[in-house]
Each structure stands twice: as structure tokens, then as C-alpha cells.
Amino acid sequence: MEHFDRRQFMRLSGFGGAVFMSGLGLSGCAGPGTGSASSDFFFVQLSDSHWGFEGDANPDAKGTLPKAIASVNALGQKPDFVIFTGDLTHTTDNPRERRERMAQFREHVARLQIATVRFIPGEHDASLDNGKAFQEFFGPTHYTFDHKGVHFIALDNVSDPAARIGETQLAWLSDDLARQPKDARIVVFAHRPLFDLYPQWDWATRDGAQAVALLMPYANVTVFYGHIHQEHHRMTGHIAHHSAKSLIFPLPVAASQPKRTPLPWDPAQPYKGLGFREIHADQRAADFDIAELPVQERV
Amino acid sequence: MAQAFSAKRPVRRRHFLGAAGALTLGSLAVLGHAQAQPRVVEVLAKRFVFVPNEIRVKKGETVLLQFTSDDVPMGFALADFKAQVDIVPGKVATLLLTPEKLGNFTFLCDVFCGSGHEEMDGSLIVTE
Description:
Number of strands of chain A: 12
Distance between the termini of chain B: 15 Å
CATH topology of chain A: Purple Acid Phosphatase, chain A, domain 2
Distance between the termini of chain A: 40 Å
Oligomer: heterodimer
CATH class of chain A: Alpha Beta
Shape of chain B: globular
CATH architecture of chain A: 4-Layer Sandwich
Number of helices of chain B: 2
Structural class of chain A: alpha/beta
Helix content of chain A: 10-25%
């Protein structure tokens, strides 16, 4: 396991000396529909909106997701697609309430002016019913798709309440990977980290190491995930793992405080620590450029 | 370093049966290293709390944690000792532990069990 140092991160992200600021997008990138099998594009990752949460950690819990959606709609260029990497809704023990939250979440997301919006579940969405309600509203919990020369794999490490991907899905992953060339550009989406980020706070996947082992023979693999409500970057060998910010409240850095309690809302800086990201694929480079963007109070 | 799951001597079945009748296979593997009669600590896991949620152990003392759940499946994870056991209602789950480092270590439920799951934790306090 290796931590990113500054040089590694710059190289991996391709940022160089550039600074990407809020809402501006990256003007040099091609938009959707540029056609070729392998061309530049970008997509947007949103995560951990926890629709239905109520608490001091976010006094604008009902307003943050709509603001994030408005922020995405206001981007200078439209992404090719948007993906939500889990915890779309905040958990409830009531199955009917769970479905109401999912219906409300889906209503808001329908306002995204993007043709393709994809979802994977988080444990708040799926762990109490093994993904049943999630599938009713959003479809399969794990799947693959190809887009402009990149092979995308969405993994489900939450429908098992014990945070296992499970042997069946691992076999499915193995079969899918067997059809990919070793130099394929592969992006994996998951909710929980696939490595032991901090198991003391349940920031892990029990059999995540098996998934990483299956991915290791492939030269160009990048993982985007959520769950920990903050930006985080880690390498496992040559595989880069990037976690996304939340759209409800930020969580503390691992081990920085005794409990995994949300960082308090700062009225002087509302929505601080919340946000989403653009992920840019450049056909000339195997890695991805990531631009972190805040939730805009007013768009 | 803790010896939560080390097995330095072969397991003796008579020893195993004498200590506890409901040991899991994982616990069986470590019992050879345990004391003849480890102190038993019973822990009830219920939504959304461990009872007790504070377990005190002397450094080097072997304790047999016995877990039960009355309602839904739970988990007990003590990451600092790489110790984990699933708790199924109606069964006794066990974990043999010999902490060899001092401190206050958080354990938590690692099987998502409901709306209070993320607050379901406790402390293992290891003293001299």
C-alpha cells in the first residue's frame, strides 16, 4: 500500500501546475458525441447524497442535492454521463419510507440535464434488503459498460450487509476481465473502498482484496468510490483509488478523532467539504484528470 | 502485538470442550494458546448497542468473548487486533482474545443492522 506524495498525485492526475476551479469545467476537452471509439471525454461523479437525512450536520439537507444538481447543470460543457456512487438515500428501517426516499431522490435527479445517469448502491440504500428497493428504482447493482475506449465496471460491495462483494460477483468480475486485453483502460466504481482504508471505522470491504487481485494483471485500472465523505487518494500497487466528497456532510480524516462523527456544519462556510468531481479521460494518457468542484450556494 | 488468532500449540479437543461448547472453528484454532480457563465475557448485541460496550482486559490475559443477538444479524469487529466474528440470532458466537498491547481500542458492528448501525460501537480497554 502506498500513499500519494505530491509528485505522484500530480503525475497521476495530470494536473501539473494548473488549478481547476469551481464550476468552470475544462474547456479543452471534447464534449459528448465526438464519436470515435477512443476519444477525450469527461464524466461527473456524485456520491453520498443521503436523501432523507435530518440533523445538525447539514441544516440544508433538503437543499444540498438540488444545489448540486443545479451546479452540474451549470457546467460549461455537459459531461458524457453522471454516476452516483452510492448512499443515494439515508437509511431507514421502514421499507416504505426507503422507497419514498428513493422516489424523491429520483425526482430530483431527473432534473439533471444529462442524458445518461448511472447509479450504484451504498449500504444505506441496499444493506437492509439486499438491494431489493434499489433495484426496483435504479436497476442492477453491478454491471459493466463501455464508453469511448474505456471499460467501466460497477461493483456492489454493499448489498451484503457484511460488506462482501461475494463469490458470485467476484466470479462475474473474473469472467468480465478475462474478456479484456491486459492494457485495457478500466474504471471501477464501488461504494466502499476496496482496500482497508480504516477498518476501525468500517472503511473497508471484507473481500475487497480479492477484487483488487483480479484487477492487478491489468495495467490501466482506476477506482472511484464514495462512502468516506471526503476526497482521498491511495495506490494499491499500480491501481489508483480515488474517493469522492459527499453531498450531505463531510466525515473526519481517518483516526483524526475518536469517533466517526460528521464534521460540524460551519454557518460561515456553508457546504464546506461537500462537492462533486469531473473526471476527464484523455485518449493520450492512461490516467485521468480529476477536478473537484464545490456545491454552489447560488448557481 | 496482539495474539488474537495465533496458534502456537496444537489444539486439544478435550481442552476445547472443557472451555466452551459453542466455540467457532476460528476460535478452535487459537485455543491451544489460551489459558485453561479463560475469563468469559458475555456480550449482547442488540439494535444498536453492545452490552456491555466497554470491555476491560489485562494485558496478556486471555478472555473468551461470547456474543449473542436477540434481534438481527450483527458483527463484532476489533480491527486493531484483526479480530472479527459474525453474530447470528439464536447462536453463540465466540472469540478468544489475548491482547498484548495497552490502550483503548474501538470495536464496532460491521454488519449493517439498521438506522443506528453507525453508532453501534464500544471500547476494549487493555491495562497493565
